[in-house]
Design a protein that fits this description.
flat; two-stranded antiparallel ribbon
């Protein structure tokens, strides 16, 4: 009898570990892995605390050449003061990604007609319509023109480096709630 109880407990534990660490689908709607999502230290609870929405600081921004000061006013609008333009554009990219990463990601996919990669087949008609508009072609031409202008190239490259620096600084526990809900990593 004792062996049976131990075996049953072990089987239930293994099943729960398996079940809570994989994605499931209910009526065609995907669910994130509930174990990771409900984890009190890394899951969505981490996003619920406003103290975790910390303003960018120079210590967090790896890649700056000189001092950058970011001051948030009472409505959390950042005011960026930098010693040079490169650091200014880098900091702007970092701060924008910190506050708008999900929006940036979704708008990029929407413009390219690739929302189905994130949200599933329910958005296929939207993607088809967006692809017909030719936004990718226009964006590629715009990017090519920006690369021809040395000043614009510097601005875009530094801004992009700031966005990428923020993305590279993220761990699962710091991911935005939207990424955790959809079990989607950039």
């Amino acid at each position: 009898m004792k062996f049976f109880k131990v075996t049953l407990t072990l089987a239930i534990t293994l099943f729960l570990v398996y079940a809570l660490n994989r994605s499931w689908s209910i009526q065609g709607k995907p669910l994130p892995p509930l174990g990771k999502f409900l984890d009190p230290f890394h899951g969505f609870w981490r996003n619920a605390e406003t103290k975790n929405i910390a303003p960018a600081s120079e210590a967090m921004m790896q890649g700056l050449n000189k001092e950058v000061t970011v001051i948030y006013d009472s409505t959390l609008i950042p005011h960026v003061y930098a010693a040079n333009e490169e650091d200014l554009f880098f900091a702007q990219g970092y701060i924008t990604a910190q506050h708008r990463l999900w929006q940036m990601e979704l708008q990029t996919h929407a413009g390219a007609g690739r929302v189905s990669e994130i949200l599933g087949s329910a958005t296929l008609d939207f993607d088809r319509k967006q692809r017909r508009l030719g936004m990718v072609y226009g964006a590629e031409n715009g990017a090519r023109e920006m690369q021809n202008d040395p000043l614009m190239k510097k601005v875009v490259d530094q801004y992009t480096a700031g966005v990428n620096a923020y993305i590279n600084s993220l761990t699962y526990e710091l991911l935005l709630l939207e990424y955790k809900l959809l079990d989607y990593l950039t």
